[in-house]
Amino acid sequence: MKQSIPRAENPSASKNVSLIEDTELSKRILKRVQKLMHDAIHLQNPDMPDKSLVQLREEYERLDWDNRQRALKILSTEFGVDKKRVKDLIQHYLSLHDDEKSKAGDGENPLEAAQFRTERDLRASLMPLSVRLFEQMNGQAGGLKFLVDLRADLLSALRDDNLPALRALDLELRALFSTWLSPACLELHQVTWNDAASLLEKIVRYEAVHPISNLYDLKRRLGIGRRCFGYFHPAMPGEPLVFIEVALTDTISNSIQEVLFDKPPISEEDATHAIFYAISSTQAGLSGIDLGNFLIKRVLRLLQQDMPQIKTFSTLSPIPFFLKWLLPKLASFCFEGNEQRTFKEKLLLAHEEKALKDACGNYNSPDRDDDTSGESIMYRILGASDPQWGESEQLSAVLKVPLMRLCARYLLLEKKRGKALDPVANFHLRNGASMERLNWMGNKSKKGLKESAGMMVNYLYRVESIEENNQAYITRGIIRASPKVEELVAGGQQSALSNLPSLRLTRGVVPVKNTLKSADVAEQAVADRVSRSKPVTLRAIVTIKKRPDNKVTDIFRKGLDFFVQDPLGEDIVLQLVSTEVDPSSGLGRRSKNTTLRKVSTGEHTVEYAGEFIIEDQFGKPGAILVANRHKAEFFLETISLQGLKTGLISFSCYSWVHSQENEVSQRVFFSNEAYLPSSTPRGLKDIRASELKTLQGDGTDMRKPWERIYDYDVYNDLGNPDKEKKLARPVAGGAVPYPRRCRTGRPPTKSDPRAEVRLAVTSKNYVPRDEDFEQVKTEAFSSGRLRAIVHRLVPTIITHFTATPDEFDTLTDIDRLFYEGIRLQTELAENDRTFWDIVPEQIRQLINADKISNAIKYPLPPLLAKDKYAWTRDSEFGRQVLAGLNPLMIERLKAFPPTSSMDTGICGTLGSAFEAAELEKHLEGLTVEEAIKAEKLFIIDYHDVFMPLINRINSLKGRKNYATRTILYLDSANLLMPVGIELCLPVSKDKPNGSKRAFYPTKDATGFWIWQLCKTHVRSNHSAYHQVVSHWLQTHACIEPYVIATNRQLSAMHPVAKLLDPHLRYTMQINATARQTLISAGGVIEQCFTPGKFILELSAAGYEKWRFDKQGLPADLLERQVSLQTPLSLLVLSFFHSLSRDLVLKLLLVILSRGMAVEDKNSPDGLRLVLEDYPYAADGLLVWSALKSWVTSYLSVYYDSPDSITSDTELQAWWNEIKTKGHPDKAEGWPSLNNKQDLVEILTSIMWVASGHHAAVNFGQFLYSGYVLNLPSLTRKLIPEKDDPEYKELLQNPQGFLLATLPNQTQATTVMAVLELLSTHHPDEEYLGQRVQKYWTGDERVLEGSNEFEERIAEVQEIIEKRNNDPKLMHRHGAGVPAYELLLPTSGPGITARGIPNSVSI
């Protein structure tokens, strides 16, 4: 076991430090750092503000390395010990003498008191001023970690310039750390596989003794028969200071291979030995702080308590400096003549030297007469850069005797200042261990052979002897060792060497011949011989996800196939493809096929191993071909390839591999290295092209479930005309402009050849196999759907047994759904067979599973929990426009009155019923014109969107709706308040001129209820447009073509495909489900939302205004405003006809770009929000900025020349296909793709819509729409005029009239059930800044950018949380006001109304 301490590198090379390249700027920062140091130390207030200390840390971290060194020198000199003060105090102290006259009898002695005061002052003055800074910094969050990193810089600076002042500063920091990090302050934690991913990644990164090669390796080290413990400090959460790895065995291990690889762990109940095989210190800044000493003893005691059957505690430790000690001594024998040797002692015994010479040949050097010494032969063997000798059993046997003897001597006899020279030995001997056994070939790795000739040593911790051994070693330098080790030193173990045959020509041995003049020549000879004759063995570790067997057929297949024939191993065939071309075929070199064997089984995965034997000239593997000869599919997660000189190669697969019965050709998986088409290695070009061809298909035939073909089709599968004529629906795409969906190839209906046959709800729409939900998602989604059915079905059934079927009788009926639930034993007797007989068995079981309450109860929306009557308040209405479910509709009012651009034959008049005088009653003394100029008036305008559909909607049973406009005013308290609502009806037989009625807030009772009804109708428009356009169309439907084009045109090797991959996850599957159950004829949206069967027309109307170049958040905010279409505006537009086209476009840009934001070059995002307290926009811009920064960083790795974008054939084909095949009905709004900045904007827009936009409009659905009074999905009554018969009903029972306007019980509970499902985060959710596929790239530059993006997202979360606690931001803070958390990046599972998943996955 070795204690590994990471070296403090030059900070300028650190990936976590943002460095300033501008020298002058760095100097200015240095001055600020110096001033902040001074303020921290010299200000009268001892408690320096946290903000200033944070600023000091940030500014220091921005310094380049040269200026960091200067800062450390300033800290050590200007803020060191005040030497003048010390000198004065010493002189003063010496001047004090015992003056007899000054004594005051038996009373106080003034001289003695003065001496004590001077001693106190002297002690204080000897403390450097910098200690004050360190103590203040240590008291701040993150301060200790900063100081640890500061000392790492200090140690690096000392290597460059060993100044006394810097050494003194280091001593002070080291002393402080020894106090702050005492064992009493540290927390011992057992690291397990269930710990946070960030901690596990640090374990992998910090383990330097026996590096962790992959995820499988990590799981093994944390699994059965293994333990890992770490010391943590509360001030550095999630950051291990030192950790130790332990193997539980039944004997003392003699090789690291046995611990790490070869020997499977025994049952923990049978373990009698604990082997400490690695201890790693993680912080370079804690070098010299002995934490390992305390850790190993504490872990020993803990294991004794938990596993009393373990009686033996031993290490398996490396000897990292043995050859560094031995090789210089051997090298001296290579000189001519004994007089030139710096080391003259003969190291080899006579019989050892003879055996070595006999083995390798006794050759004379051409320029010498004397025989070559055994030591020089040994030097050339051991000094080779590639130690091949370890592969020869015969040569290894010859070297074993002298090397074991010399190593024992090195460990026992070679000392420094009376203690063991070897640092690892010194560490364990100081801890009280004894040296138990020296193990030959304990570490056969290249590193082990080069450091210690493969030897390892066991240090034994006998509990009863630890203190005795410790004292003997510390006080007298005595090393306790077993007789076996002592015999080695004395040369007591002699081997019968006479029986060994000659090894002169053994493969892998350094042949010492007359022609050899140096160790370099010998190394080359070995390399040449090995390259000509020795094949390379590569080990593949394959991780396959377990799949629960839910179907009888699956179980039957598994029983026949997996258990009888092969436990999923031999029938999986792998073949490597090289990046190098085979001259004979012109294609990439192929290896021989290999099969797998099972090596371990985890909770969710099974791991297999296979071996490839390839020739050295095979080249670097770039792809793996996989064939599945089983009858069932399996989910392949990763493949790791070990054994290459260049290191581990990872293949991030995450794909279903089907049986060759279905998928005849081999599956292709590329390594995680990204290539542009032009840089594709020659050996991979053919399979890159053929794989894309496979995914594109040929556009024919009906798709099969196992296929991976991506193609386009129109939305012609929403209707079901073969079942009923009234279920026919128009085709969206083509005549009705719309995005395209995934082609399934199903046959046309009999009734309409343009429509595709509709599948039953229980069947699955085709999506390419890898687009389907993974098992965790499938189980969670299915469970949620079943619960939604119960929540929807049971209230609907029960209501038909009540006095007023399907209606809410009172507002309390609505509240009961959340607070009490539907108690079945109360509502219906259990023996009422009429009810129970019509409830399906599956649902009866789910109902009966709730033994406690026997109630169907909905989760309580936080809005209702905070303020039951929030829905009645105008301030809450206005707040939800900015921070609610659909915050994308508000526009800045630019002209009054608002007008329409529609045909008067539809809407009647183009004008508005709003009156300025009525509005001005609510504008705090401003006129409408003044309020517009002050940017205080806003509008939500659904007039033109709904007006063409209103007559058709209102003809449907149970539907009565208006096309609405709402004007809102930002008052002096910065609250957005509705000040006017216009309800409009189109031209009809009853209303030849249409109808426009304006309403305003009033204080009288009748006016109050009418105002509530007006807001209900606005909310109904708002809810429908949100669901059909803002949510479904703009995210789900518009993104699906991106998914299809990415898979058809971008190879999995393409960097853009790798970047987009997490943002396209699950979208096609959730869209296919929506087409079956939500937006289809008779689906939930038709039944329960305002447009009814006209949802497609409403969605298509929204698509008419859709432009790709407005999907980015900044562009959307700049765009949103009310168009200038007053008569004066039309006159101005007519003037444009006389101007040039370019000038017209510039003028229009000025007019049309002043929406909810204005351009502002001084702002970080280049724009200023008109409404500062606009939570969606303010938080969204943070997310947008982080995404754009990440995309820019990522693309810079791959696109480094001006023409790299235009010459990228796959990228150009991808963008062209999105425009011409994915969105062929949209000719305008597509940006060009000519340079890197164009690509940054395009990708950021796609990723924003998939993540932030979708999160903002989806995960608050149950929060806001789950309470029908707050955001009803439809309205069933118009507001009567005074002469209408219903007006009297409104006056007599306004609450009842409101309830009759709202959705009925079936509609309301259906919406609640569905939104409960759609608002739920599932356990396998992948949030912004996270990636499920940990090994998706191996490029350090990309990983660095990814880490920075993750940190940036964490900063976004902190900023949003601070905003939510700011009392000045009243649209997200206040009594009864839910905090705006929809754009908080992370979330746990369930309904949380927060969290930004990477993709549209629900």
Automatic annotation (TrEMBL):
GO terms for molecular function: malonyl-CoA decarboxylase activity; metal ion binding; oxidoreductase activity, acting on single donors with incorporation of molecular oxygen, incorporation of two atoms of oxygen. Residues 550-671 form the PLAT domain. GO terms for biological process: fatty acid biosynthetic process; lipid oxidation; oxylipin biosynthetic process. SMART domains: LH2. Residues 674-1402 form the Lipoxygenase domain. It comes from the Eukaryota. The keyword Transmembrane helix does not apply. Gene3D superfamilies: 3.10.450.60, Lipoxygenase-1, Domain 2, Lipoxygenase-1, Domain 3, Lipoxygenase-1, Domain 5, Malonyl-CoA decarboxylase, catalytic domain, Malonyl-CoA decarboxylase, oligemerization domain, PLAT/LH2 domain. Keywords: Dioxygenase, Fatty acid biosynthesis, Fatty acid metabolism, Iron, Lipid biosynthesis, Lipid metabolism, Metal-binding, Oxidoreductase, Oxylipin biosynthesis. Its cofactor is Fe cation. InterPro entries: LipOase (IPR000907), LipOase_C (IPR013819), LipOase_C_sf (IPR036226), LipOase_CS (IPR020834), LipOase_Fe_BS (IPR020833), LipOase_plant (IPR001246), Lipoxygenase_dom_3 (IPR027433), Malonyl_CoA_deC_C (IPR007956). Plant lipoxygenase may be involved in a number of diverse aspects of plant physiology including growth and development, pest resistance, and senescence or responses to wounding. This is Lipoxygenase. It comes from Selaginella moellendorffii (Spikemoss).
